[in-house]
Specification:
Layout lengths: L6 E7 L5 H18 L3 E6 L7 H10 L4 E6 L4 H17 L6 E4 L7 H17 L13 E5 L10 H9 L2 E4 L16 E4 L11 H13 L4 E5 L9 H11 L3 E4 L4 H8 L13 E5 L6 H11 L4 E5 L5 H10 L7 E6 L7 E6 L3 H7 L6 E5 L6 H4 L2 H21 L1
Parallel strand pairs: 1-2, 1-3, 3-4, 5-8, 5-9, 6-7, 6-8, 10-11
Antiparallel strand pairs: 11-14, 12-13, 12-14
Helix pairs in contact: 2-3, 4-5, 6-7
Length: 402
Amino acid sequence: MRGETKSGVLVVGHGSRRQEANDDVREAARKIAEWGGFPVVEAAFLEIEHPTIAEGFSRLVESGACKVTVHPYFLSPGRHTRGDLPREVSAVAQCFPHVTYQITEPLSAHPLVIEASIERIRETSNQGSGSPTSAAKSGMVYLVGAGPGDPGLLTLRARALLASCDLILYDYLVDLETLKFAAVKAERIYVGKVGGGRHTPQSEINRLLIDQARAGKRVVRLKGGDPFLFGRGAEEAEALYEAGVPFEVVPGISSALAVPAYAGIPLTHRNVSSSVAFLTGTNSVDNHDVSRTLANLSAAETIVILMGISNLRQITAELIACGRAPETRAAIIRWGTYETQQTITGSLQTIADEAESARMRPPGLIIIGEVVRLRERLKWFEKEWAESSEFQEAFAEVDERV
């Protein structure tokens, strides 16, 4: 266009005796020209390799450039970008008084470079762990179990996917500390469900998964515990299958297994229990289904009930009606694996009153069986935090006196 000042870009690398390193700089210059839409781009080198800065600058001028932007391609900020490079560019520019120039800041400390470096480090670290931790793929949905709460119980595969995904849809029971494993650029959308409260409809979650995957996003659906154990993961997998969207299921440590362990309650013991039943205390179709399930599973020596605190009185009454002794030991654990974990124990006959007195509210886990008696000797986690709290309180009292 008439009157337009033609601009040129000089991409400057250090220069190496290894031809591959020099070719990398030339390829970067080519991509900068192609992706950036710049009309004239030349590669040049500080030393060893040709073209030199003077040669590259001259080529741009010969191509009609009246304004030159010099871009130091990963040169060190101290010696090169603020020392050698400005001196050489200034010297050659004096030969072309009609040409103006400017030098960009070095890339080394640019926030996007730091972010990309963090992402590469995480990817490489995860890939070196020996687990199948390849990065998330575009157009895929990953149904990922976030574990019972403590971020330290997240699987290596889950961490690798969080570090490489574009979008995370996460639940109410996912600890927000877990999201720190995600890339800075990853979008986060809360789609949690709380019993009796506001929640995102399952149909809306399914639609988001499908639409975002079809848009080429790498999508992680992060669910508390394990996605296929009372987590609606199967419903989401079915919706993805029907829509023709590829997906992968990444198991998580279920709260049904981890929370009792953190409360010092083994689900099986050679001398106490050799059978375990897992069930939910609510049902989306009919509460009578819960009663029928209890009747069918009441003979199991250990019963683990998720999402059952709201129906605790009904559950304990029905188990007693099914033949379980009223003296059978029972426990309720709230916010298992967190520092705020709270556990109460009693019997089938008393546990509902104990829960009401302690004001136990969801989320919580119910365990019924004689294995609960072992807690007095095996409760390692809450004892650990209690001792830590006592130490901190004692330290604070001494500090106040001082």
